[in-house]
Each structure stands twice: as structure tokens, then as C-alpha cells.
Amino acid sequence: MTTAFRRPSDRRVSPIFLGIVAVMAVSGWAVWTDFAEQTGFAVFLFVTAAWIVSLCLHEYAHARTALHSGDISIGAKGYLTLNPLKYTHALLSIVLPVLFVIMGGIGLPGGAVFIERGRISGRWKHSLISAAGPLTNVLFAIVCTAPFWLGALDGVPMTFRLALAFLALLQVTAAILNSLPVPGLDGYGVIEPWLSYKVRRQVEPFAPFGLIAVFGLLWVPEINGFFFDGVDALLRGLGVSEVETYCGLDTYRFWQEWFGDQDPGCALIR
């Protein structure tokens, strides 16, 4: 019988994560109180920090579920500290997802945790580990949209409302895209344990290119339009209008004001 030795540092919340949470809290307060001279920059900091926090929680959910499913190596890898730098390569895990947000307002998954699947028995456990990440995005989206579908927006400053709407858009797109049954994404991880060994071996070489393929398809106007029509319909059902998400993105891109590219209609709303 063996016992895993767990160091306290394996589960201690990373100062880096706490720093990001602090940036989110301070910038959110600046947006709410209109304290910041450059409100757009405060929105940028708030949404970006909140998005990184959600990325960390997404990967933490995978790791925590794997730990309880039998992979006791998770702690030693630093996945339980919520340190974004522990989730694979910093460029792929943090920088690229943030760039996707800036370029297209799309919440694409970025990080990953390496799970020793051989330590875990049972197909349901493997599926649940993969599903834990997107479910975290769903929960985050529910929290962001709660003031809208609960009708609790009285007293909420318009700029903060727009920031929440845009953040909700990111969480919904991340949840949907990451749930696609595409190799390399969590949606495929959910169904993979139920596929035959032969099919898994045939699909395995395509896993590194799944995310790239999805991103490439979203540049096709017809597919992009169909996808965002569905996202907008879902958000409308949660009480968030297209105007709010669009103006949230417009506010987030504060640098457009320098070039006179911000929508004057959104300026009137704010």
C-alpha cells in the first residue's frame, strides 16, 4: 500500500493568480464607480483579468476532477495552485486566448493540464474530467448573465453592464467551442473513452490541429455568421442583447478611440 505525500505548496493558491484577481477587482471597481479617467482601459483590464481567471478555473476544474478520479500526480504538477503559468506553455495558454479576444471577441480555450490517464479507471470518470472545464465556463456565464435574467440591473452603471455582457459572450463562446467533438478539445475528450481503440488511434494525429481548424473555420463568413447567430440567440434568452455585447466589445477595444474607430452609437449608450 502506498500513500501519496502532498506538500502544502501543491495546493496553495499562487500569488500570480491572486494578483490577477486583484487586478480584476480593482479595475471592476474603477468601471463601476467611473473612477478611471480612461473608462475603456479599465474595462479592458477588468474583462482581460476576468477572462484569465476563468481560464485558470477551467483548467483547475479538470485537475481537481482528475485528482478525485485517481490521478494523484496532479498536485505535484502545480495544477491545483491556479497558477496560469503551470497550464502548459504561457504563450499557448494565456497570450493566444487573450489575443483571440482582442482580435475577434471570441473566447477560445487555451490552456491544458496533462493527466496521467493510466491512473484513472472507468470511462465515466474520463468523460467527467473532460467535461469539467466547459462546465466551469457555463457556470461563469450564468454568473455574468444573472443580473440580466434576474432583472437586477437597477443601479448597475451602463459601462459595467456592457463589460459584463461582453464577458458573458466570451464565456458562452468558450463553452460552446470547447464542447465541440473535435480532437484536441474537451468535447472530444468526453466521447473519446467510448470510442473503439482503432478509431482513437486514427484520430489521435489530428488532435494538435483541432483548435487551429476551429479558429480557421470561424474566419469563413457563412460559418462565423451562423455561429454568432446561435450565440446571440442564447444570450438573448439570458436577457443580454446584441447591442450590449457589441458595445461591450467596442468599449473593451479602447484603443479604437485614438483612431476615431469607436462606434458613436455605443458612445451614446455609455
TrEMBL record:
What domain of life is recorded for the organism? Bacteria
Q: Locate the transmembrane regions by residue number.
A: 12-32, 38-57, 90-115, 127-150, 162-182, 202-220
Q: Which cofactor does it need?
A: Zn(2+)
Topology in the lipid bilayer: Multi-pass membrane protein
Is RNA-binding included in the keywords of this UniProt record? no
Query: What GO molecular functions are on record for this protein?
Result: metal ion binding; metallopeptidase activity
Keywords assigned by UniProt?
Cell membrane, Hydrolase, Membrane, Metal-binding, Metalloprotease, Protease, Transmembrane, Transmembrane helix, Zinc
Where is this chain's protein located in or outside the cell? Cell membrane
A single GO BP term for this record reads: proteolysis
CC per GO annotation = plasma membrane
Under the heading InterPro entries, the entry gives: Metallopeptidase_M50B, Rip2-like
Keyword Coiled coil found: no
Under PANTHER family, the record lists: ZINC METALLOPROTEASE MJ0611-RELATED, ZINC METALLOPROTEASE YWHC-RELATED
The family classification in the record reads:
Belongs to the peptidase M50B family.
Q: What is this protein called?
A: Site-2 protease family protein
State the species of origin. Streptomyces sp. NBC_00148
> What's the source species' lineage?
Bacteria, Bacillati, Actinomycetota, Actinomycetes, Kitasatosporales
